[in-house]
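TICKET: design request
STATUS: open
ATTACHED STRUCTURE:
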């Protein structure tokens, strides 16, 4: 009995130590995030004005804005998500629900996992080879959007597949017992149950795509058409992340440091806003379910 008591006390003490350690790591990570956000936002937010968000960039004079590059950022992101979300979610559904265990699906999964870890500059070089050199359409918005969609596809596919595979098998068995077909089970049971995980994956790729620079530089360039609302898919597609890099490295405008601080603050705020907006359906679904 004494030996068992000692083991229980030791196990309880180890459990408490592990819990305190993990909480400490979480707190450190949270403080690091807060410090990074504060450092970026404190430099840019006090100087930010509404005109800065809509005015054209200026290469020489003080007071330029980020209007066209900010619009291009949303435009390129929107087009890339329209392409990547249906294809990626569909591929994840196929791999988790329809694909048989054979050499082809093993090779397919291994390829998707490998592509998910490939650096973005490799996708940028691929997009440049296809759109700029092969099709000769130049540095364009459509080239950047399609290349970003290819960058997002492996992540969305893997997240969708894993979210669906994590569901209890009993959900499907209960659905089939009620007489539903496989497609009806996926549409009415599987996808709603895996909705939170899929949306989380979309949030990750959306934030990554919005802040991407290597792909944009190689496929859309660093400049814009010079118009605020340019929906032409074959116009140059410099985005906010690329503009921030350009201002910090090559710009000769006197207030380059101030523009960079404000652009960085806008970039961080937009990424936070995108994640917040994409999480609204999840919160609505959970709230509706509780009611």
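STATUS: resolved
RESOLUTION: sequence designed for all positions
ATTACHED SEQUENCE:
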């Amino acid at each position: 009995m004494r030996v068992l008591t000692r083991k229980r006390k030791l196990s309880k003490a180890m459990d408490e130590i592990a819990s305190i350690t993990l909480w400490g790591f979480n707190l450190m990570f949270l403080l690091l995030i807060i410090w990074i956000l504060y450092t970026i936002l404190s430099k840019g937010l006090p100087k930010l004005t509404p005109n800065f968000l809509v005015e054209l960039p200026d290469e020489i004079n003080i007071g330029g804005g980020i209007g066209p590059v900010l619009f291009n950022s949303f435009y390129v992101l929107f087009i890339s998500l329209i392409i990547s979300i249906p294809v990626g979610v569909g591929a994840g559904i196929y791999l988790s629900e329809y694909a048989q265990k054979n050499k082809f699906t093993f090779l397919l999964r291994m390829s998707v996992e490998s592509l998910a870890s490939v650096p973005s500059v490799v996708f940028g070089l691929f997009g440049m080879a296809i759109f700029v050199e092969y099709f000769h359409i130049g540095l364009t918005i459509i080239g950047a959007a399609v290349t970003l969609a290819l960058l997002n596809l492996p992540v969305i596919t893997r997240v969708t597949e894993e979210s669906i595979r994590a569901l209890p098998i009993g959900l499907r068995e209960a659905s089939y017992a009620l007489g539903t077909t496989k497609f009806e089970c996926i549409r009415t049971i599987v996808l709603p149950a895996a909705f939170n995980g899929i949306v989380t994956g979309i949030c990750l790729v959306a934030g990554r795509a919005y802040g991407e620079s290597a792909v944009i530089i190689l496929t859309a360039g660093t400049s814009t058409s010079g118009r605020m609302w340019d929906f032409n898919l074959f116009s140059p597609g410099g985005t906010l992340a690329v503009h921030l890099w350009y201002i910090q490295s090559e710009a000769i405008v006197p207030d380059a440091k101030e523009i960079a601080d404000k652009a960085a603050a806008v970039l961080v705020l937009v990424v936070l806003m995108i994640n917040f907006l994409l999480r609204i359906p999840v919160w609505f679904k959970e709230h509706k379910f509780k009611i």
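CLOSING REMARK: The chain has twelve helices and no strands. The domain at 50-290 is CATH 1.10.3720.10 (MetI-like fold).
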